[in-house]
Amino acid sequence: MQLTGHITPESLMSLEAYSKWRKAHKPEVIAHRKLRSVQLGEHVNLQFESEMTIRYQIQEMLRIEKIFEEEGIQQEIEAYAPLVPDGRNWKATMMIEYTDANERKRELARLIGVEDRLFVEVEGHTRVYAIADEDLDRENDEKTSAVHFVRFEFTPAMCAAIQAGAAVKLGCDHTHYPAHTQIPMETLASLAGDLKLRLV
What we know:
Oligomer: single chain
Shape: globular
Distance between the termini: 33 Å
Number of helices: 6
Strand content: 15-25%
Radius of gyration: 18 Å
């Protein structure tokens, strides 16, 4: 899987080529996803996306749906490519996880707005709150969704601090889900690679 910085139909593998690649490389992708996954409290998991995770997601969708026509490929790219970080932010899929269906229903009703109360705090800097669900609204008056897409935008100074090894906290200050955790060093090292320093 070649990372080019820009996902285009030409840079994706054919279904046949991907099938061969997948057999050999799936464990690597799973390890990469696991490294970039952060558990926040008992019921929220953030999967920080990268070009690799999104390429894999697109290739998987093409494989499962057996899509090989240009129009279908382009639709999958348009659906997922916005989730690739662009050098000044982190982007993540937020999953609210409750195994019991009744508990999940009850908690999703209590957690309306939780996606807007997620934050990242770089040591020595102010909190950055998530910008959530830019593609479509995922909650209504009765409940929030179990899945949200979030983006954390950083200033150049924050990017520099993260790349210099500053500690970073992930948290939530929603009334019904107060939680915070230090992002592990190995995960932070991978996430720091998403950021491109800008001096302007």
